[in-house]
User: What shape does this take?
Amino acid sequence: MCRLPERLHLSNPQDPYQPGQQPYGQQSRSRQPLPPAPFGLPGQPPARSRKGLCIVVGIVGGVLLLVVVGVLLILNLVGGATRKASDLADDFTRLVIAGETDKAYNDFMDPALKEQLTKEDFASGVESLKLDPTCTTAYDDLKVSSESGTNIADVTGVIKCEGKDIELVYRFTGKDELKMVNIRLKPKG
Assistant: This one.
């Protein structure tokens, strides 16, 4: 029988790990320091300052925040004025349909319109329409604007009653409180 020298001793793959040997499939990973950079420069480039990036991101974020706040304010103002005009038109029309013409006239009409349209003429005009509690209102258009500090709301639509439709056109104006300055209620035909 032939003997192998000690250095060339082969081990069986099932033999347990022996000192001085690497387990099968593992490589040696020794940590060696990186060689110095050429020309005496440090091993890594200097870290970049992110101050400029932070300033740009802050400015962009601030501008976006201002835009969002501005849009929300505009929508709230326009939405608030539109809602207020819609509520005025609803309240006025409910009183007219219910036959409460004196209250509608006194509470909603501007003094300039009252000079052109007497309370009696208004009441008789509404009575001639023969409105009843089954009538409903549908608005076709509601425009709100502002001119020289005066708010304007134009409302158009239809009062739908059994067997007939009545066209409605209202205009409300005012600075703090809107009053009706124009009205048209007439059967569609």
Observations:
- The mean pLDDT is 79.
- The beta strands are 136-147, 150-161, 164-174, 179-187.
- Residues 75-187 form a domain with the Nuclear Transport Factor 2; Chain: A, fold (CATH 3.10.450.50).
- The longest helix spans residues 51-97.
